Amino acid sequence: MPSAAHDTSDATIDLPSNLSAVARLNDWYAEQTEGAALDARVLGDMKLCLNEAVANVVSYAFEGIAAPRLRVTIRMAAEAVTAEIRDNGPLFDPLDRPEAAAMQDLETAQIGGFGIKLIRETASTLAYTREGQENVLQITCRPADRGSATPAP
Fold first, then answer.
1. What is the pLDDT of residue 100?
2. Per residue in 69-103, is it b (16+ CB within 10 Å) or e — as a string?
3. Which residues, in sequence order, are bridge partners of residue 8?
4. Of 39, 42, 109, 153, which has fewest CB within 10 angstroms of its CB?
5. CATH number 3.30.565.10 is the correct assignment for the domain at 9-141
6. What is the pLDDT of residues 5-18, one digit of tens each?
């Protein structure tokens, strides 16, 4: 039997298409990560990334979608936690979005883009693909390279 340090485990949840998805996600994530051998900071980084990604999907992706679908899968390994977020909203590549402008003051602050900015600054790696009618965002958090996930130019 392999040691716990080399085990991987996958878990998947289907979420509702409204903001209650974030609370359900957090409860589920806490159950899945309880007792995990991963560093608490890595698990916290992934929780932040998942919260931002799921909130964005349920806030913006499902207008006009008759049967919205949102699924999150996490894989924990000794060295990293990876999540895959799938939704059937319109094509949206968050890695193709420009960096949100730095906020100078409240009067001139632009709304939008800060969730993606937080994910980029927190995750180790990000990848996006469109598979059929689904957006697929993959996020990986590792202790050694936190915040290195910037899209390729």
1. 54
2. ebebebbbbeebbbbbbbbbbeebebeeeeebeee
3. none
4. 153
5. yes
6. 445 679 999 999 99
